[in-house]
Amino acid sequence: MVLSDRDILKALESGRIKIDPVPDLATQLGSVSIDFRLGTTFMVFEHSRYSFIDPRQPQSIGDAMRTIEVTEDQPFIMQPGDFALASTIESLELDDAILGRLEGRSSIARLGITVHSTAAVFEPGWRGTATMELSNLGRMAVALYPGMRICSFSFEEVSSPVMVPYYAKRNAKYAGQSTPRASLLADEGRQDGSPPSTGPHGDDDLVLEPMNGTTR
Of the four listed, 86, 113, 119, 160, which is most buried by Cβ atoms within 10 Å? Predict the structure, then answer.
């Protein structure tokens, strides 16, 4: 059951949903959701330097991304076709019987900007900021400003408290994040006991080669 604005307020008062900093309910609370605001940290792929990403190699993913910090009054420009990871200003904590769903705002989508690809569900027990997968599907560049209402969260009551909340999971890769975090897909092989993939230099000295003839 999706929580109404009335029930969202009750959950905030009881601590079943915690949002920090406290939202301005006059502007951020909707009928069945709360808007979250865009932070100042972005991660982008260095596609001009590296030819591909190997999801089995942590260094491949980490080295291929660059972190960009902008000031509160400085826009982050999303060029057509761009992809970037960004985080919300607000940190969210969920009760063990409440899940959250992140959705884009219609006003942002009408500019061609999507805020998530597939990662819309935040499991009961989530703690941390939300990392958004921003994409510009339009044909014009769009300026995104820190502090703007970029996405919204709706909340649902699950049938009973989960046995293992997200923060208690052994493989909770993104628990407690405060800034955008690159994909940790490469860690899954290590967590499930399968041997990690090795490159031509071995696992410990893997080198991600830049594409020939490119500089940054």
Answer: 86
